[in-house]
Amino acid sequence: MKNIKDLNLEELENELIELGEKKFRAKQIFKWVHNVGVRSFDEMTDLSIELRKKLSLNYDLCVFKILDKLVSVDGTIKYLFELNDGNIIESVVMRYKHGNTICISTQVGCKMGCKFCASAKIGFVRDLTPGEIVEQVLCATVDTKERISNVVYMGIGEPLDNYDNVLRSIKLLNHPHGLNIGGRHVSLSTSGIVPKILKLADEELQATLAISLHAPEDKIRSSMMPVNDRYNISQVIDACKKYIEKTNRRITFEYAMVDGVNDTKECAEKLIKLLKGMLCHINLIPVNKIKDGIYEKSDKKNIERFRDILMKNGLTVTIRRELGSDIEAACGQLRRNRMQKESD
Q1: Which is the catalytic residue, given 13, 15, 90, 328?
Q2: Does the annotation mark 139 as catalytic?
Q3: pTM score of the predicted model
Q4: What element of type H or E holds 317?
Q5: With contact defined as beta carbons under 8 Å apart, do 298 and 268 qualify?
Q6: 117 is catalytic
Q7: Which end of the chain, N or C, is less surrounded by CB atoms within 10 Å?
Q8: Tens digit of each residue's pLDDT (9 = 90 or more) over 210-246
């Protein structure tokens, strides 16, 4: 049975015609699915009972079950969603003054094996479909009864490893008859899949590209991120420069601060040489401690010292505000804990 959330408006129009229905009904259905976020075809009250029955017989509405929901003292909400096939993923809603942001997953598990990520401990199962990616935003919107204005593709999985489905999901989220989340309110994070970064440069997306860099030299980065053995720092930076040249869009470099690993003055100086002159922004992230993990986050003074060195040399730098630390809000941890409990 087709997931109706996977279909764009034009495809839905064609499906309706094949069902013997009027083309204009597609717009009504698309709004119910992608704007209102109905949890049942029966909620589509401006459609005939006969059409609602046809839809339920031919399509899956792809409604997630909330297996777990943790709410932080700072208002951050962490969701553990069960998919229709029984797999589980996570999403995190963060509240800011400028609006609500959701961090969403793109895969069940991940192939990248980053040492600081809880998702890497479980392994890869499958890609999410466009509709499953969108449903995370819809499910959280319905649950919180609040508009989500920003979407960050930085949850479980490597977005550029699920390239086509991720791009389709962005277009569904952007659609004026859907949630109408503008491209400038979407961030797409990657560990550095060079061919897909170059391909993305041709897509004319308004989304912000974020690169998980985390180290200024290959030896350190490879120890943290095995993907660096495939696409090293030089290749990633070269691809980023080509991306900026084509799009004229600023890139964000994510840098997880790990005590005694990549937070030294020497690392800061190497990072300056690497990024100076680029149209970029550096986001320093106190690394999240994960169960059985080998990394500890840098202390606050060290992170601030690192930031100051970069800023004195003309780089634009921020330190990410820590949200949801009391509920382990970094993606992957809740899923991993549940899977470990079920296997015990």
Answers
A1: 90
A2: no
A3: 0.93
A4: strand 317-319
A5: no
A6: no
A7: C
A8: 999 999 999 999 999 999 999 999 999 999 999 999 9
